[in-house]
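Throughout our pipeline, every protein is held as a single compact record rather than as scattered files. Nothing more is needed to write down the fold, since each code stands for a local backbone conformation. The record that follows is passed on verbatim for readers who wish to inspect the format.
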Amino acid sequence: MALTGSTLLPILPRCAWVSNENCSNCRQCQRTFNSLTRRRHHCRCCGWVFCSACTTKEVRVFAISPYSYDGGAKSAASNLLLSLMCRVCDGCYENWKEMERLCTMKNGDKNGGGPDVEHSSS
């Protein structure tokens, strides 16, 4: 997949996520988490904690790998650009979809358009 034509979704680093200890309920539906039937899932975009029912979408994001092509130490000239599918909350997904729609309209759909989206299997 080429980098052009795709809307880049900003993702938060793990250190910026809301901690599990601070969330006993899903941010969207307010259902209580437990270790057996309702697990916590962090949205990679906003960092809030949701249940699986409220994080059903994934979007493609791009990240720079800390490893070079040859597996050696990080080097600015040899970093890998990774394309990853990341789980996001339904609210961030809708925002991303709207941003993608606006970019597609502005660019006249010259890059094949349409959101690069997969539905989460969990």
Q: What stands out?
A: The chain has a mean pLDDT of 74. Residues 90-107 form the longest helix (18 residues). The domain at 14-110 is CATH 3.30.40.10 (Herpes Virus-1). The radius of gyration is 17 Å.
